[in-house]
Amino acid sequence: MPAHKDTFGTPRSLLILGGTSEIALATARRLVARGARTVWLAGRPSPSLESAAAHLRRLGADTRTVAFDALDPVAHEGALGEVFAEGAVDLVLLAFGVLGEQATDERDPVAAARVAQTNYTGAVSAGLVCAGALQTQGHGSLVVLSSAAGERARRSDFIYGSSKAGLDVFAQGLGDALHGTGVHVMVVRPGFVRTRGTSGREEGPLPTTPEEVATAIELGLRRRSEVVWVPGALRLVMAALRHLPRQVFRRLAV
User: Fold this and answer.
1) What does pLDDT average to in each consecutive run of 10 residues of the chain (254 residues)?
2) In the list 47, 105, 156, 167, which could disulfide-bond 112, CB 3.0-4.6 Å?
């Protein structure tokens, strides 16, 4: 099925890696309301994935699911290639990831490695597959959900933060590599997002919601931004934290 963009650059076809992500689904709802008509939800087969697809169908989108596992990079090219074989994709949203449990993961190297493999290794593999497909078709955007946690290692979440730091650098470099090809890469750095997955966790500075992140993603796409902070003021907060002397930073309850 052919894909095209309207005069405002609104994508008509979406591929979401991490099809049950609350941020991704909030973004999909916004874009469907703006005219997106085809949505692929990639994720592990589950009732939650099917429920998300059914929800978007009720909103008017032709929504399909595709089996995808971040921890199985060998299968990424085949699974995602099937999506692009059906027609051009205007927007790929890389939204999968796990928070892990810092307190227990520090004592369980296998669990810690799983966080890194999901958030970084899996994203590198899937990101390169999608980038290659977008470059072949000659247009499209790749939006990568990073995190403010990747800006500086914190005692409370340095395993997760380090995986997002790696992802962030990878996505920036990929954007540079694709510059001039017609493919746009945008890195999104939310702070603490209130979702089911973060329920019960201590909130960071300037907390936000999936809907607010979705709004920022849509605006960033329209502006062809390369990096988007959510909320915008978080950029200044993290700039200050990034340059604090390490001895001071260690004493902060962050």
Assistant:
1) 46 96 97 96 98 97 98 98 96 96 95 98 98 97 95 89 97 97 97 81 82 96 96 89 84 64
2) 105
Tokens representing 201 are: 């966790």
What is the Cα–Cα distance from 161 to 37, expressed in whole angstroms?
35
Q: Could you give the angle at which helices 76-85 and 122-137 cross, rounded to 10 degrees?
A: 30
- 13-250 maps to CATH 3.40.50.720: yes
Rounded Cα gap, residues 216 and 188, in angstroms: 9
> What is the model's pLDDT at position 5?
40
The letter for the amino acid at 104 is: T
| Bridge partners, 39 (sequence order) | 14, 63
Torsion-angle region of 115 (φ positive above 0: left; ψ -120 to 50: alpha; else: beta): alpha
pTM above 0.85, yes or no: yes
Who's near 18: CB < 8 A, 6+ residues apart? 24, 42, 43, 70, 93, 94, 95, 96, 97, 145
**Position of tokens 């019960």?**
200
Residues belonging to the active site: 160
